[in-house]
């Protein structure tokens, strides 16, 4: 009989970023106090599950999100570059309301191909590295569960690929909130379902501001 394995993709918690910088892969961006509470709440929520492997993006905010899980399960966090944030040529810029970057004439040269996208790491490249790390985690945790701490765009990209959807999209429509879990369930090597949950949703200020 085939074994059931679950690979959870956990987005990191809220980051301390009062200047509104598009930080991307830049070092030095850590969880805020709320972000640490999010990480603790996720760890408490999944504490009863059968997690035997824990991987994380090497960036500080992801490592800090993984730390309470490592303590809860007695695991060592394995840093994996394949889980890193998507590359972005605009990192270091002030993002403002998200559309501010589009309004700056000096940035126009980056937006010639939104389907690739031309301003950052290609979707196909993100898909392939995320597909590989999910498969490795599935093999390692066979018959059990694994948690992979990553970032919004990589998680959303592999979810869209797994669901057979196009990779280019409107970023405002991503279902991947802070400290959310996107869970892939496998029967043997076959993906049988994709689930989504927000164990720390009550702490997400942006969600509360929208009245969600």
From TrEMBL:
**Gene3D superfamilies reported for this sequence:** Phosphoglycerate mutase-like
SUPFAM superfamilies from the UniProt entry: Phosphoglycerate mutase-like (SSF53254)
Taxonomy, superkingdom: Bacteria
Q: Which PANTHER family match?
A: BROAD-SPECIFICITY PHOSPHATASE YOR283W-RELATED, PHOSPHOGLYCERATE MUTASE
Pfam families attached to this UniProt entry: His_Phos_1
The coiled-coil segments of this chain are none
Question: Known InterPro entries for this protein?
Answer: His_Pase_superF_clade-1 (IPR013078), His_PPase_superfam (IPR029033), PGM_Phosphatase (IPR050275)
Which species? Nonomuraea typhae
Q: What is this protein called?
A: Histidine phosphatase family protein
